[in-house]
Design goal:
The complex is a heterodimer of chains A (196) and B (234). Chain A has 196 residues and is mainly α. Chain A has eight helices and two strands, in the order H-H-H-E-E-H-H-H-H-H. In chain A, strands 1-2 form a two-stranded antiparallel ribbon. The longest helix of chain A has 27 residues. Chain B is mostly helical and 234 residues long. Helix content of chain B is 82%, strand content 0%. Classes of the chains: A mainly alpha (196), B mainly alpha (234). The interface between A and B is large, with 57 and 56 residues.
């Protein structure tokens, strides 16, 4: 893992553990710093789920009846709940941006090295096998999709889904195990075409 | 040239037999712990993990993106049911301890490296699903009942994942916000508070039941696949 990504994650975790008051005052500059590092992190704030939750925390929550201590256009709201909602939103934004930045900046090699170190031996080889299998899987799955487009194929799948899936799986297992080793390039023949 | 071709075919034929045997017989298992006996190689089973991990990764990338694009509700439920089928089948063909975590890590890596937007939440869910399934199989052994329990827990976890993830990112105060919001809604709609809790529990039970069905399907598929491969070998 890149050292910068680890430091960022650790810093974000520290900010998340701060009291509410501090989260807002330290979190906002942290968000600005993260955005300076990578503008595309702004995408995090554009996610629908995040926007809905943030609106609920900042707009809906302070106006819940029975907790108001201030007024805004004749509407009573709670300033403590508004501040708490703001702190929670900033906290989520800092953590999500830091995670997003880390995921984006981790190179596959260092990611594999970390996983292998953390108790998944030969994981690099397994992932390489998986990557080798992917084109075959893609072809096999596309075949099944085109088969499903025919009435006969659909009828077969619906009549016995277990049998249908088992046949696909057996085929995939067979194909993946039969995949030949990548061909080794022959060494160049010596001059004059004579074999050693 | 012809000599080279025939040798090549022979090599492939040997490879086919050895690999098919490994799929069917697997490696010597310890009857008590349902894991590999100490010192036994898991080589061919690791490639089975790679295959199932790749399959899971492709499903997450292709189906997950498609479902997300057309805004299908309960897409997490659909994906975790597929994941349950894959996990149960993997355990049938790769019976060594930790095989499901390897499969999950492969799927997680494929999802992470696919570059399909913000994926850390999904990656975490994939890894935790595989850890839950592995834990269940390790505790209860590789049998139909444990597959059903594992499936039910995996899909139930998907139901809870959103709530847990919100707790991690927004802080655990968010639960009190939800509780207050639910109380307001209950007060406005004049419904019984226990009714809301019953509905939430019913939804959790539905998730669990669907996980059970997915695991049952996966177990049957794995057994049938094994039988098909055995038929081909004999």
């Amino acid at each position: 893992m890149k050292a910068r990504a680890v430091i960022l994650l650790a810093a974000a975790a520290c900010i998340a553990l701060l009291p509410r008051m501090w989260i807002v005052f330290i979190g906002v500059p942290a968000i600005a710093a993260l955005l300076l590092l990578d503008r595309s992190l702004l995408r995090v704030a554009r996610q629908k789920a995040f926007i809905v939750t943030a609106l609920m925390l900042i707009v809906f929550q302070p106006f819940l009846p029975g907790s108001g201590n201030a007024t805004f256009f004749d509407l009573r709201f709670s300033s403590a709940l508004l501040f708490s909602g703001l702190a929670m939103t900033v906290r989520a934004l800092v953590l999500m941006m830091a995670f997003s930045h880390a995921v984006k900046n981790i190179s596959p090699t260092s990611f594999l090295a970390t996983l292998e170190k953390r108790g998944l031996p030969d994981f690099g080889k397994t992932l390489a096998d998986a990557q080798d299998a992917m084109p075959h899987l893609r072809v096999a799955l596309l075949e099944q999709v085109s088969d499903l487009r025919t009435t006969r194929g659909r009828r077969k799948a619906l009549a016995s889904p277990v049998e249908w899936t088992a046949r696909i799986l057996a085929k995939l297992l067979r194909q993946s195990q039969l995949m030949p080793e990548p061909k080794q390039e022959h060494p160049p023949e010596p001059a004059g075409g004579q074999k050693p | 040239m012809s000599e080279f071709s025939s040798k090549d075919l022979q090599v492939n034929a040997d490879f086919r037999i050895s690999v098919h045997s490994s799929l069917l017989v697997c490696a010597p298992m310890d009857k008590n712990t349902h894991s590999l006996k100490p010192g036994v190689s898991v080589g061919p089973q690791v490639s089975t993990c790679a295959l199932f991990g790749a399959l899971w990764g492709i499903v997450e990338v292709v189906l997950g993106t498609a479902l997300h694009a057309v805004h299908v509700p309960f897409r997490g439920l659909i994906l975790s049911c597929v994941a349950t089928v894959i996990l149960v089948c993997t355990k049938e063909f790769a019976r060594y301890r930790g095989s499901l975590i390897t499969t999950g890590a492969v799927a997680m890596a494929i999802k992470g490296l696919s570059g399909t937007g913000l994926t850390f939440n999904v990656m975490l869910a994939i890894l935790l699903e595989s850890v839950i399934a592995e834990g269940t199989f390790s505790l209860l052994g590789i049998r139909r009942a444990s597959a059903l329990i594992a499936g039910s827990l995996v899909v139930l976890y998907t139901y809870l994942h959103g709530i847990l993830a919100q707790g991690v990112f927004f802080g655990f105060d968010i639960y009190s916000v939800y509780a207050r919001a639910v109380a307001v809604v209950i007060g406005t709609m004049k419904v019984d508070a226990s009714f809301v809790w019953r509905m939430l529990l019913l939804l959790a039970a539905c998730h669990s039941f669907l996980g059970l069905l997915a695991a049952w399907f996966g177990w049957n598929v794995a057994q049938r696949t094994r039988a098909l491969l055995q038929e081909e070998l004999s």
